[in-house]
Amino acid sequence: LSCPVEIVNDGVNGLLAGATRGIGVNVTAGTSNNCRGRNAAGKEGRIVGNGAPFGEFGGAAEIVQRGLQMVNYAWIQRIPPTALTQIFLEAVGARDELDLMEGLSNQQYHPFPFMAVQIFDAARAGDAAAQAVARWAGEELGWLAVSVARQIGMENEAVEIIQSGSVFEAGALITDPMRDVVLRHCPRAVLKRLDGPPVVGAVILGMEQARFDG
């Protein structure tokens, strides 16, 4: 290609599409999670973006993984019974909890990220384990934002924290605990849900490469 080329990921798209002049932090939570930031001087911050192996949580895959841990805790009687057990049994077609654990251990059964929707439903219905999973996910997403805000030196400024991705459709279940963590460490932060398609960010990025003011 004879034109300028810039290759980024969904973390940048949400930032450019949602933040004023592309300055601030974007937390993306969909199938997994990502976070990118940029300050007024152009300095960028980021996480690894490879999820659980690096301790970066909050996307649907990690929520389902955490939900499975709660199902196991209930099975071994670490916690009381949870509605999550039936969700997992039905999702993979297991006969009972023992079959579920054996099938998952042998990779016969495979949970899928969309099960996060059912976990949120169970949380709204009052299931304590599901509520704990949602709260954990929101707090983890908050920590992603705090970490990147620190990298770009905006933790004490009125930094815009953009929330993009389908997990945020869970609403207060995710955004309330996320806000608590963010404001504890970035007291002037402003949290905003991305209003519009993330592809707008790609258009703005292209404009910047062509020396237009995105």
What does this structure look like?
By secondary structure, the protein is of the alpha/beta class. It has helices at residues 10-18, 60-75, 84-92, 97-105, 115-124, 128-151, 172-185, 199-209; strands at residues 24-29, 33-38, 44-46, 160-164, 190-193. The protein has a 5-stranded mixed β-sheet with strand order 3-2-1-4-5, sandwiched between helices. Helix 1 crosses helix 8 (199-209), helix 2 (60-75) packs across helix 5 (115-124) and helix 6 (128-151) runs parallel beside helix 7. The longest helix is centred in the middle third of the chain and has 24 residues, at 128-151.
Give the oligomeric state of the chains in this entry, treating copies of one chain as homo and distinct chains as hetero: single chain
Beta strand count:
5
Overall body shape: elongated
Low-confidence stretches: none
Continuous helix count: 8
Mean pLDDT: 95
Radius of gyration, taken over Cα atoms and rounded to an integer in Å: 19 Å
Q: What's the story with the biggest beta sheet?
A: 5 strands, mixed
- Order of strands, main sheet, comes to 3-2-1-4-5
Helix content: 40-55%
- Helix/strand/pairing category: alpha/beta
Q: Topology as H/E string?
A: HEEEHHHHHEHEH
Q: Report strand %.
A: 5-15%
Compute the separation of the termini in Å: 21 Å
